[in-house]
Structures are given as structure tokens and as C-alpha cells.
Model the fold of this input.
Amino acid sequence: MTVVGPFGLSVRDQVLEADVQAGLAAVEAGLLDATKSEVPFITEAAQHLVRAGGKRFRPLLVMLAAQFGDPYAPGVVPSAVVVELTHLATLYHDDVMDEADVRRGVDSANARWDNSVAVLTGDFLFARASHILADLGPEAVRIQAEAFERLVTGQILETAGPQDGRDPVGHYLDVIAGKTGSLVAVSGRFGAMMSGADEGVVDILTQYGERLGTAFQLADDVLDIASDGHESGKTPGTDLREGIPTLPVLHLRAQASAHARPDDLALVELLDGDLTDDARCAEALRLMRTHPALEQARRDTVRYAEEARASLAPLRECSAKTALEELCGAVVHRVG
Done:
């Protein structure tokens, strides 16, 4: 058994392991090349998060999906670079919106420089992704454009909040389907499409990515409360502090509204207060970590991961399919 990719995903096939490792190494080189500029400061800022590392979750999915066609096809690695560059660009923008200080265990770009540098660096990465995408053909451009529209729409919906009468949990799941699921779905789609896999396989891996992306984001929601920061690479309670309505908080609010238990109402009041105060934020984290709402969010994470696994059933049995199934378990393992 060997370990490759995020979360200690185990790959038991030596040929598959070699293909994936070679593909991810090529993606890493492609990321560094794509983030170089004639202006040294731009290179430094653009490579800030690249060099900080990360799980390379999306490129890994591209590499595994490509195993259902020709994994050595020329468009596979560039498409993986595109999805990771796009993801990295959104992180620069997210950190500005969230006023985050830490990303992937290092200072966020906005903390190290300022908001303007972070936003413009994100824009630079989007531009470089578009440049690579143009060489992959009009269909790839269209797919990426549609995914990017969904991503931005998800962000806007999160900012605007649910309309009157809309279930906040349902609204939130729509948000993360756009913000996270869309780009993970493209990862599965690009890997299969660029490798020349059958259209039915492309559709299956697109649906798989959508569900897995949702599970991945829900796991991050749980980790924001439950982790010590090493797993997520962010300061625990960042979302709480910024008032971002993640799934555990939404479940808490629903329970408080339905049952009006004094402890729940007191915790909601605490969350609605000023959590920029370290002591108040620490207390909110302590109480959320023992609240049933956190366990409910864990169960939701497992459900989406299991739906992703089930969607793979029509695919032929092979080591890549097994690895994709284990990736579902790896996402769930993060939240305990």
C-alpha cells in the first residue's frame, strides 16, 4: 500500500500510483510556470499560495478520472493546472472577503501585503488559467466559463442570504454546490474528457465530482469548528468569527428555532455577538464542539460522500475506480 494525494489516499496499484504521481508532479511544475511574471513582485505574490502547498484535491481528481481514457493525453495536465489555478485565485479573493489572516499554514496574501494586492493577484491567476484554457479548445472554455459562473453565483447567493421563506439549509447547500461543487465537478469532467473517455463516463465523473465537492466543503465546515487548524490550514473558528453561516451553525439555529431550548438560544446569542473577541470566539468554539448540530453536519458530510461513491457504480471495475471510492472515505475521515 502506498499513499498519494490528499488525506493519505492509499493507492495499491503501482502503475496507477506512478501515473498519478507523475501527473501531479507535472501539475506542480505547470503551476509554478503559470505563476511566473516578468515583474518579480507579481511572481512572489502569485506563487505565495502555490509554494504553501495544499492537498491538490482537484488535480488529483483530474488524474484519476483520466484513467478511464488515455491518462497521457496532452490535455490532461494542462486542464488540471487550470482548475487548480482557478481554485487558488478564489482563495485570494475569499481571504479578502473573510478578512482571514492565515491560509494553508502561512500568512494570507491580504495579511502579508494588503487587500488590493490579494485581489489583483487572484485576477492575475484567473488570467493565466484562461490563457492555458484557450489552448484546450472551445468546449473546454465553455465548460470552465459555466463553472465559473456557478462559482460566482454561489458566492453572491452566500453574500445575499436566503430569500424570505427559503429554508436556510437548502439555500446553503445551493451555495456550496456553486462555490465548491462546480469546480470539483469540472475536475472530474476535464480528466475524463481530455483523456477521451466515453461520454457516459464523462457524465458519471462529473456527477461524482459535484457530490464529492459538496462533501468536501461540508467537511471544511466541520473542521472550522472541530479541528485545531492543522488539517484545514486555517485558524479554527475563522468562519464563526466572520459570521459565515456554515452548516453546523445553520443546524443550531434551526434547532433553536424549533425547540427554543435555553442553552441553544444562549449559544445563538453568543454567535450573534462580537466574535472578534478571542475569549468569546473560544467559548463559542467550545460550545459548538459539543453541540448535536456539529454531529448532524458530520452526518450530512457522510451522506454526500456516500452519494458520490454510489454514483460510480456503473463504471468498470479498476484500480482508478477503487481509488475514487476511497477518496470518498478519505473526505469523510477528515471529520471523524
